[in-house]
Amino acid sequence: MAARTARPGIYISVDIEADGPIPGPYSMISFGASVAGRQDGAVYTAADPERDTFYRELRPISERYVDAALAVSGLDRDRLLREGAEPAAAMAEFRAWVREVCAGAQPVMCAYPASFDWMFLYWYLIEFGGDSPFGHSGCLDMKTLYAAKARVRCAPPSRARCRAACCRTARTRTTRWTTRSSRPS
């Protein structure tokens, strides 16, 4: 039997901002993504994190929000209610962008903490379009990756140490995601 050849992987660093702890009752109010690199067999090639980016601010989907969660983003919820992108349209644009930048490679969503960002992103992709270009499990937690590579316990490394030793785009503020090419016209 012939050995199966794995598809190359495209690592896409994602950061979301939400106005509460869980999707559905609360809203993802913005998200940004950047191609971080390509894994082809044993070879990893880092990408320019500012070259292929995507960013959208979303219209909230519910009336509920947590003031402290909203404050983290610095976004104005009233403005998002008026001007935010419709989630279904934004998710369709994001799916198309992922498929374009991956060009047949396997997309892998990377984040810190992946559990929070993945929970919102995956829920929105399924709720507003029915599918995810990442499949049901195509995510990678940057803190876990750092801990495994550095051979340290997962709990002690701080966010700053993980950032410094790992992918610098793992958890960049969403304002860094905005580029002319990724903004809707």
Architecture overview:
The chain has about 180 residues and is an alpha/beta fold. It has six helices and six strands. The chain has helices at about 65-75, 75-85, 85-100, 115-125, 140-150, 160-165, and strands at about 10-20, 30-40, 45, 55, 105-110, 140. Strands 1, 2, 3, 4, 5 and 6 form a six-stranded mixed sheet that branches. A hairpin with a 2-residue loop joins strand 2 (about 30-40) and strand 3 (about 45). The longest helix has 16 residues, at about 85-100. It is globular. It starts with 8 loop residues before the first strand and ends in a 20-residue tail after the last helix.
pLDDT < 50 runs, ≥5 residues: 162-183
Order of helices and strands: EEEEHHHEHEHH
Strand content: 15-25%
Largest beta-sheet characterization = 6 strands, mixed
As a whole number of angstroms, the C-alpha radius of gyration is 17 Å
Helix run count: 6
Q: SS-based structural class?
A: alpha/beta
- The amount of helix comes to 25-40%
- The number of E-state strands comes to 6
Give the termini separation.
51 Å
Q: What is the global morphology?
A: globular
